[in-house]
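Inputs:
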Amino acid sequence: MKIMLIFLSMILSTNTYTQNKQELYEYKKYERFDLGDLEVRGELLAPGDISVQERDRQRFEVDLYERKDSLDLARQDVDSLH
Amino acid sequence: MKKTFVFIVFILMSNIAVSAPFYQKLEQKRYSFSALNSLMAFVEKKSPGENERKALGQLSWEVGIEILEDYDSKILEQFATPPAWFALARKSLKNSDYNSVLNYSDKIPKNHWLFPEAKLMQSEVYLIKKNTEEELKALKICSKSASSAKSDDRYFKVVGEICLANIARYYFNKGKYKEALDEFNRFPKNSYLWPSLLFERAWLNYHLKDYNRTLGLLVTYKSPLLDTYFFPEAEYLSALSYFRLCLWEDTTILVNQYYKVYRPRFYELEKILRENVNKPQYFYQMMLRLDQGLKGQEIFIGKIIGRIKKEQRFISGFRQIAEIDKEINRISKAEKPDIQNKVVPHLNLVRSNIIAKLDNYAKLTIFNFLNRVKFFSNEMFKLHLEISLRKKDLIYDNKKLISDRSRGDYSNVKRTRFEYFWKFEGAFWADELGDYSFGLKSNCETVNREVTK
């Protein structure tokens, strides 16, 4: 029993110690890349001449007003009577 | 004793028989506005007889039919006469009760002076109900009956002209431009509506692709005789017609003129009017005299107001106010104080009611006009934008218009054998108005641009 109590108090004290201890994370501050030393595996592709794919030019139609009826004018004339 | 009693009863009886209702006394003295009100008060208590019906017919002609609309529908129902039915039909139209409009207006007999306008009202209902056949029928009857009216009163002429114009508009709405134009061409130049119909005729010619005739009709508004007729829509249509002829430089001139001359003036004017929009009678007073703090805008707004004042509504409104003033004056001079106290307050009420209605109508008309200025300002901008886009298209296609600014030739003037031809010699002649046509050649042909070395 005595031994168990000592064992328990030991575990608890270690736990409290780890909780109080601050965790420090350190990031890599500096890294050097030697691009000349890097190798890329693959095929080198480049256009022989500059070309643009042809497509129709976008043209926005402006909706111009054209009077198609005269309902408003008929109403206006009747209102002008009385 | 018995004889004396019989004698007293006889006198009392005869007195009752002889004593005419108050409205009749007022009517005899030609106090029409007071008599009408008294007649309505009489009918409120007692059912109308033949005398009351006759009195209503006469008084509604004298004071103006619209005054009846201020009275309760239940009283008007009791009369069961054409003026009452007409007033009820107009009230129903305002309440969008279209079946009632047709029911009431159908009761008005053919020989009654209100018959043409009743038919005009019916045509409006049929238009709303999209019953075009009945609409046209009603308009034709209206036009015919108004032209056969025995009276020379301006009212009948205006009603007849509105019906005739609406027949033309009926075809316009259906896209039958040629038929519509034929109807409009039936208007004599001395008719009241003729000047304001010019731009509708111009639109019809535009739809028929006769842009030269459109421009010719619109240039009529530049005549000094028609300087009160300024329509923003006419300015836009001129610019649009030049555009259709590919005379882009001319369109640009009109667009710039609209932006530089008209739009700033109207914005300034709107600012002043909005400041006074809630001032009682402001617009009515402006109709009478033009020193309402318009800061130099008097001449311009004066022209717009000059046109509005020619409308039948204002003519009859001003006449009614003058008649009421006369009636108040006569009553104040000739009648005893008890009669004065009985009728004059009501006359003042009717007078202020008419003024309030005219003020409101003038306000609506002026603001409606200013809204049109704004609307066509946007349309002018779109037109200008379209020209820029078309110019860009030509550059992309390596093309250009055949001429930078093509001018006219008599061979470009289209006309029927009924249309006159006048050469414009720098002055407008009254008999030539409305018969002008430009002779501009269409510039829409494109040619390849020369390659510059």
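The CA atoms of residues 3 and 9 of chain A lie 10 Å apart. Flag for discussion at group meeting.
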